[in-house]
């Protein structure tokens, strides 16, 4: 086993690329690898260490590529394997590492394995790779358990057997087009290790693991207890028979050994919707994964006491297992943080399109949040468009919505398209340089002042703030991995120091406050009225020695 002499990931800033919406090189309105390759210099100049690319594999796109039909090939919408290999080489040439997204909980229903399972008989080896069960009730007409899909409806779908009779049911924690794999099957275990190796051998530096807490199900398949929410239910998830079961850790121990067998060890980060900090940190024990997302922080309200508690609990739990914490504000599943922070208190996470938003306030807070995010100990994740100050688009016309949540919920939940709208790069009209065609989701005219082109060189822009913060973070010995010390501060103010000689302060109160003593102002989220005052919803980085 090789031990990494350069654990770059402990301090890394990783930029999330949602390839459909990043940049379109082919002109069909869908982002692709050609577009991403063209914009790699932009990402290198922004100053990120790595990019995480959402699934780019062959997929019918029933759930934005999280329904994979071939894990070793690129979807024709995005490009070719040869192009992916070129992209990896080009990114490395610019000093940017590549993290891919592995989807091991389920495949597409178009995956050859699932097609074979449908064609085979109950009890066959082909069915054994998935979770098939007989139904309950008269003629097996009722689903095997009361589990619900995360996207509404039952988590079970009944199949028609090859002889035309109604047959078994298969489990899908997400859409029916995403059948869950059976991780008790050794063939499944082996296949995913081979997929990881396939990409690692092509130079990929790591993987984000989709639904990492879901792979192993309680083999008794019990009904959910009455007090348990049907899907992810904080703080009880591991009592849910599909989530955070102890068996998942053995899978990740094997994956870690695989990563460590490379001369340049590869890294793994889990997307585990686990809210208890101790249980979450278990995913990053020394012989398991390197990092895990921290959704408690993402979901926190704009409130110092709540944030401080989450920061403390996180740092304590991860220090106990020797892993770095990670911090993230937005991703392709959640309402963009600029919008969340511009909503009325208590309604930050309300369904898209149901509450008013103050975008000016949200922008001010998003600027301050960026300085908090990048000053906390550990790694940070930035979602594409965070650096441009994009907000959630809440009024996409119904007929343009693509997220399966919209259909599955009987049009009750608009879903996640509003955070997936294609990026504005240049010009003053949609498609804003994203494409030469019609973007797959419409962009608002109001983004004309937010293009990367318009923001480049503007000292007041969000893009300039991110570039400056990332440059300082790279150069400053206090930032990245390490610890923090809280400083005395007025109520609703977060203030902490990091060694050597660095203080971050965030004013979440409604009054201006005095800056603590310092030698220099390194950066503030917006220009300050004078040398000693920090207005509400502002943050500052200070040199203290
Ligand atoms: O998300 C996992 C997950 O739990 C989501 O259902 C999340 O709770 C929800 O999106 C919040 O609105 C991952 C991917 O990030 C997501 O895009 C996929 O749809 C999902 O897995 C299925 O693969």
Topology:
Elements: E1 13-17, H1 33-46, E2 50-53, E3 57-58, E4 70-74, H2 81-93, E5 97-102, H3 112-119, H4 125-128, E6 132-133, E7 156-160, E8 166-171, H5 186-200, E9 206-209, H6 248-260, E10 267-270, H7 277-281, E11 291-292, H8 295-299, H9 304-321, E12 326-328, H10 337-341, H11 359-375, E13 379-383, H12 404-408, H13 452-455, H14 462-475, E14 485-486, E15 493-498, E16 502-507, E17 513-514, E18 520-524, E19 533-534, E20 538-543
Parallel strand pairs: 1-2, 1-13, 2-5, 5-9, 9-10, 10-11, 12-13
Antiparallel strand pairs: 3-4, 6-8, 7-8, 14-15, 15-16, 16-20, 17-19, 18-20
Helix pairs in contact: 1-2, 5-6, 11-14
Describe the structure.
This protein is α/β, with parallel strands linked by helices. The protein is 26% helix and 15% strand. It has 14 helices and 20 strands. It has helices at residues 33-46, 81-93, 112-119, 125-128, 186-200, 248-260, 277-281, 295-299, 304-321, 337-341, 359-375, 404-408, 452-455, 462-475, and strands at residues 13-17, 50-53, 57-58, 70-74, 97-102, 132-133, 156-160, 166-171, 206-209, 267-270, 291-292, 326-328, 379-383, 485-486, 493-498, 502-507, 513-514, 520-524, 533-534, 538-543. It has an 8-stranded parallel sheet with strand order 11-10-9-5-2-1-13-12. Strands 14-15-16-20-18 form a 5-stranded antiparallel sheet. Strand 14 (485-486) and strand 15 (493-498) form a beta hairpin. Helix 1 (33-46) runs parallel beside helix 2 (81-93). The model is unreliable at 1-5 (pLDDT under 50). It binds 1-O-alpha-D-glucopyranosyl-D-fructose (TEU). The site of 1-O-alpha-D-glucopyranosyl-D-fructose (TEU) has 14 residues, from loops. The site of 1-O-alpha-D-glucopyranosyl-D-fructose has 14 residues, from loops.
């Amino acid at each position: 086993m090789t031990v990494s002499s350069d654990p770059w990931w402990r301090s890394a800033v990783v930029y999330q690329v949602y390839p459909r919406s990043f940049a379109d090189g082919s002109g069909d309105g869908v982002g692709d690898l050609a577009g991403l390759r063209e914009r790699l210099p932009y990402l290198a100049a922004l100053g990120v260490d790595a990019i995480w690319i959402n699934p780019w594999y062959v997929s019918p796109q029933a759930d934005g590529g999280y329904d994979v039909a071939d894990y070793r090939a690129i979807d024709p919408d995005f490009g070719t394997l040869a192009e992916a290999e070129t992209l990896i080489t080009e990114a490395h040439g610019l000093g940017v590492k590549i993290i891919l997204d592995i989807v091991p909980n389920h495949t597409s229903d178009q995956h050859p394995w699932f097609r074979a399972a449908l064609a085979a008989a109950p009890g066959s080896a082909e069915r054994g790779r998935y979770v098939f069960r007989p139904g309950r009730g008269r003629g097996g007409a009722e689903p095997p358990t009361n589990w619900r899909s995360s996207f509404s409806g039952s988590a079970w779908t009944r199949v028609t057997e090859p002889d035309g009779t109604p047959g078994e049911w298969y489990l899908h924690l997400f859409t029916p087009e995403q059948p869950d794999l059976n991780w008790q099957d050794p063939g499944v275990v082996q296949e995913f290790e081979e997929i990881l190796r396939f990409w690692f051998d092509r130079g990929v530096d790591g993987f984000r693991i989709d639904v990492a807490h879901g792979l192993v199900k309680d083999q008794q398949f019990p009904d959910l207890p009455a007090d348990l929410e049907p899907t992810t239910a904080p703080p009880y998830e591991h009592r849910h028979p599909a989530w955070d079961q102890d068996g998942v850790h053995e899978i990740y121990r094997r994956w870690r050994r695989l990563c460590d067998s490379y001369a340049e060890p590869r890294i793994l980060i889990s997307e585990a919707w686990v809210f208890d900090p101790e249980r979450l940190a278990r995913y990053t024990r020394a012989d398991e994964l390197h990092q895990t997302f921290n959704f408690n922080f993402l979901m926190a309200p704009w409130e110092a006491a709540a944030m401080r508690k989450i920061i403390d609990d996180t740092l304590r739990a991860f220090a106990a297992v020797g892993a770095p914490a990670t911090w993230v504000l937005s991703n392709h599943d959640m309402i963009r943080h600029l919008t969340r922070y511009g909503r009325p208190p208590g309604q930050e996470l309300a369904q898209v399109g149901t509450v008013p938003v103050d975008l000016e306030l949200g922008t001010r807070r998003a600027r301050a949040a960026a300085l908090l995010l990048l000053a906390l100990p550990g790694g940070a994740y930035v979602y594409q468009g965070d650096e441009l100050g994009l907000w959630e688009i809440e009024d996409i016309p119904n007929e343009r919505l693509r997220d399966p949540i919209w259909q599955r919920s009987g049009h009750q939940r608009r879903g996640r398209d509003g955070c997936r709208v294609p990026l504005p790069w240049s010009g003053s009209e949609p498609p804003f340089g994203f494409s030469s065609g019609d973007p797959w989701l419409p962009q608002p005219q109001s983004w004309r002042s937010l293009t990367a082109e318009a923001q480049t060189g503007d000292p007041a822009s969000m893009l300039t703030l991110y570039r400056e913060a990332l440059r300082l973070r790279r150069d400053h010995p206090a930032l990245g991995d390490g610890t923090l010390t809280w400083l005395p501060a007025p109520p609703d103010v977060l203030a902490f120091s990091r060694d050597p000689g660095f203080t971050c302060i965030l004013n979440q109160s409604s009054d201006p406050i005095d800056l603590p003593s310092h030698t220099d102002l390194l950066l503030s989220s917006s220009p300050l009225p004078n040398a000693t005052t920090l207005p509400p919803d502002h943050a500052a980085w200070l040199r203290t020695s």
